[in-house]
Amino acid sequence: MSIRRGLLLLVVLALALLGWQWQRYQRFADAPLAGVGAQASVVVARGDALPAILRNLRAQGIAIGPALYWRLLARQTGAAGHIQAGEYALPAGITPRALLAAMRDGKVLRRRFTIVEGWTFRDLRAALAKVPLLRHVTSGMDDAALMAKLGYPGQHPEGRFLPETYAWVRGDSDLDLLRRAHAAMDQALEAAWRTRAPDLPLQTPEQALILASIVEKETGAADERPRIAGVFVRRLQAGMRLQTDPTVIYGLGARYDGNLRRLDLMTDTPYNTYTRDGLPPTPIAMPGKAALHAATHPAADDALYFVALGDGSGRHVFSRSLEEHNAAVAAYLQRLRAQRRATAQEGVRR
Predict the structure, then answer these.
(1) CA proximity to 291, closest of 216, 190, 223, 234
(2) In a structure prediction context, what are the per-residue pLDDT tens digits for the chain, which is 350 residues long?
(3) Residue 159 backbone class (left: φ over 0; alpha: ψ -120 to 50; beta: rest)
(4) How far apart (Å, rounded) are the C-alpha atoms in residues 145 and 133?
(5) How many other C-beta atoms are found inside a 10 Å radius of the C-beta of residue 169?
(6) 218: helix, coil or strand?
(7) Which of 61, 112, 291, 342 fits 212 for a cystine, CB–CB 3.0-4.6 Å?
(8) CA separation for the pair 99, 106 (Å, rounded)
(9) Residues 247, 316: contact at Cβ < 8 Å?
(10) Is 7 exposed, middle or buried (0-12, 13-18, 19+ CB in 10 A)?
(11) Cα–Cα distances in angstroms (integers) from residue 319 to residues 236, 264, 279, 323, in the given order
(12) Distance between CA atoms of residues 31 and 43, nearest Å
């Protein structure tokens, strides 16, 4: 074999080897990573370079393949030197190319936390305390210290955080979420107050927030909220007491055991709207946007009373006069007694 033919053969072998390596590299770049667990993620700390990220992946049992391929792919995708810190999701089927592109573009994993309409601030704090991976910086603070930390010293926290779903990322704290929810409530309340109906017996946005919180606790039926608000608005205009059970329950606090007694309705607290005129001193829960709108745009009818329908729907019967209301209450009590008898009989059969 001549030297020329030998060199040509070496070139052909080298090209074949390069082609084989290129095919392997392409398969690596676009093949799903093996060993990715359910709901897996990888955290890139500030300053982490590619080798540290690969060690992190390997520590999770993920088969990462040749490090050389990762370096080549990082250059090819433009991720080299541009990987952003954060937590990145590792869904089933993710490829090295897709992962590096996400890290280059900062497409960090966004988790979600929902504030539920009608929650109290105590409920909200308890729910936040149970969120894993969120930084809990308010654990040792009482409510007053927390509000001061948010920049609202002296403000009562009840009702001040808008029920919505909030996205957050690794590194965020419970205080970050509360700050966003507080700002969202300020905006929602301002919008509702700015477009409020004329001649409301409400002097300030704060009073609208209080009324909205009562409406929120009184009904879960969206279409009933304006009617509930209308009843309370007309009672305020007529100088009648609101006489709403949720405010009494809120005033009882930890003493409430799930059973509201006649004695509770007669026991005076700042929140007992059976013993005191007007609105309670603060909101009693977190009202959603629909309740805010209802409180500032109440239905214009002539109902002054309402009582639960008692059929399990959560809906109410509205009445214009005390006589009509008393009849509705009697019907409600009759249905309640019938349900209790049926429950007792079912228990005996079992």
Answers:
(1) 216
(2) 577 666 666 665 665 566 666 678 888 899 999 989 888 999 999 989 999 999 999 999 999 889 999 999 999 999 999 999 999 999 999 999 999 999 999 999 999 999 999 999 999 999 999 999 999 999 999 999 999 999 999 999 999 999 999 999 999 999 999 999 999 999 999 999 999 999 999 999 999 999 999 999 998 888 999 999 999 999 999 999 999 999 999 999 989 998 889 999 999 999 999 999 999 999 999 999 999 999 999 999 999 999 988 777 788 999 999 999 999 989 888 888 877 777 677 666 65
(3) left
(4) 23
(5) 14
(6) helix
(7) 291
(8) 10
(9) no
(10) exposed
(11) 16, 25, 21, 9
(12) 21
Q: Name which of 177, 148, 192, 154 is nearest 298 in CA terms.
A: 192
Any idea how long the chain is? Answer: 350
pLDDT of residue 346: 67
The tokens describing 107, both together, are: 């497409």
Per residue, what are the HEC states of 85-122? CEEEEECCCCCHHHHHHHHHHCCCCCEEEECCCCCCHH
Separation between Cα atoms, residue 247 and residue 237, nearest integer Å? 19
Matching residue, tokens 């936390």: 113
Specify whether the CB–CB gap between 229 and 329 falls below 8 A. Answer: no
How far is residue 105's CA from residue 167's CA, in Å, rounded to a whole number?
18
Place of tokens 């009843």: 231
E strand intervals along 136-278: 165-168
Kindly list the structural domains of the chain, giving each domain's residue range(s) and its CATH number in brackets, ordered by start: 28-105 (3.30.1490), 111-189 (no CATH), 203-349 (no CATH)
Would you give the DSSP letter of residue 47?
T
Q: At what angle do helices 225-238 and 205-218 cross, to 10 degrees?
A: 120
